[in-house]
């Protein structure tokens, strides 16, 4: 008999506990390498009300055992997302979590509201992206602002489960976690990227055009394990763990720390089929 | 985009062919069969410290063997140079668009107008941008045999290398070097182009009786590509360029490599990827998936 590896997140059944992380999956291209319905859930790239251009290149830099990105949340906007990416993923039978960004609390609520009327399965609020100067960072680092944002989104999202994605770039992640859960968050996902920078020795200037970027990949895995562990002990809503998962063992470690499900980001950039491999490796532990 | 192949392929050769330049050959029947000139391969370094792929253009395909030519510029390419023949290397490819993947191209079974009759193809390359053009030249020659004249204009910082390879397939190989005395022409490729093709515009008579190139292909550093683009625009030569950008994935998932392009609205120049301009009139495209080969006039330089 095939073992049931499904998990339940806020009333949504994921057929297994492996997701792909926001910003590291694109249906047209990643979809060539595996069936999106084979994963527990596909988290899509952050989507905003109107298209965002993102930053100029270079937007990628390497770090020891990791990478920095300053994509700047480049996306084609809500309309295009609903008509293309979301439609194609749902038609392919995938469970989909739409990741939402905005410049203002109202914009978050508007996007969440529009998505609530679609067949998307879960909403994930990116209140933590450290790349965009005038957005994410302010929401995700101040408990009051974060709570206000979540309360507004919950009101607009008509019962669609709202997962709040937390930034590790805070003094105490449990403080923010409690604040957003008190404001109505149905679940949490963590961690987003850590602030970082590389400097080119020849030009003596930052490698990334935007200056700094977000660190991801195996280098941040222990940070993720600790933050999931601490957050698990502070709140009782389901936690989706992520950060530097390269193997099934890495994923299992996050589950031991308290995550119900685990998302794979950077590993999928290195190998498009990594999420499937990690799922197979994880099954040995479950 | 089509799915790329990936595997641990056996390295058959990895040797220095010039100062700081290496030629890497590996046996990969699946990549070899699928590869087109202009496409690239992602090379992954062993060890786990350097995670990101190193995108390297495909420089040649012979039988099951794929050749890449790379310059040592940093930690990754330095580590790559240490890999010995016989070892296995994680590689994914072919990736991206090629020079000839549009209907009516010179290697198409039914080439469009300009390429049915004898025509001249111009190759403009700089440094490690040269080898992929050699692959392109071989593909054009194979498809059009005697009905094409191929002229290569190549620039090097020091002593030219890969010269014999080009001479074997091109009718003319013009070389420039920034090092005095290292090549027949002292200076960069842009200057060499101006000197070699003094005629003003399509159709105007030429001093040396050369046919005007119908098509130009360029690969090399961005300033060289920009110069080639200006040159070809002034002379009404169709140019395809291969762009470079830092890549997170190399297959289209991360948007790390996007560049600014514009809509051409020319049926003879089909464009890949999205076609909705933003508020500024630009379309952001992924160099790895919608490129690396673009029409020179769609690139916002
Ligand atoms: C489509 C494409 C085709 C290419 N073809 C060739 C080729 O045929 N021969 C060749 O010698 N080089 C080629 N390059 C450039 C080559 O990818 C870089 O020189 C190489 O990645 C440098 O790695 P490194 O670790 O030695 O340098 P480092 O500077 O230590 O690398 C750090 C990071 O920056 C990236 N990086 C550094 N320089 C470049 C660059 N110029 N372009 C893209 N990424 C860069 C690396 O991949 C790595 O992620 C190509 C690049 C692209 C995008
Ligand atoms: C290239 C890239 C783009 C990303 N884009 C987003 C994004 O749009 N929204 C978001 O919430 N997180 C984004 N992230 C963060 C990831 O979803 C994830 O939280 C983080 O990378 C840690 O996981 P990893 O180490 O497995 O990559 C991005 C990460 C990378 C590497
Ligand atoms: S490098 Fe990731 S989309 Fe091009």
Amount of helix of chain B: 10-25%
Largest interface: which pair?
Answer: A-B, 37 and 33 residues
| Classification by helices and strands of chain A | alpha/beta
CATH H-tier superfamily of the largest domain in chain B: Nucleotide-binding domain of ferredoxin-NADP reductase (FNR) module
Structure characterization notes:
The complex is a heterodimer of chains A (286) and B (301). Chain A is an alpha/beta fold and 286 residues long. Helix content of chain A is 34%, strand content 19%. Chain A is built from ten helices and 14 strands. In chain A, α3 (105-116) packs parallel to α5, α7 (221-232) runs parallel beside α8 and α8 (248-257) packs across α10 (274-283). Chain B folds into two domains: 5-95, Translation factors (Elongation Factor Tu (Ef-tu), domain 3, Beta Barrel), CATH 2.40.30.10; 120-244, Nucleotide-binding domain of ferredoxin-NADP reductase (FNR) module (Rossmann fold, 3-Layer(aba) Sandwich), CATH 3.40.50. Chains A and B meet through α1, β5, β6 and α9 of A and loops of B.
Core attributes:
heterodimer; A: 286 residues; alpha/beta; TIM Barrel; eight-stranded parallel β-barrel; 34% helix; B: 301 residues; Elongation Factor Tu (Ef-tu), domain 3; Rossmann fold; seven-stranded mixed sheet; six-stranded antiparallel beta barrel; 33% strand; globular; binds flavin-adenine dinucleotide; binds flavin mononucleotide; binds FE2/S2 (inorganic) cluster
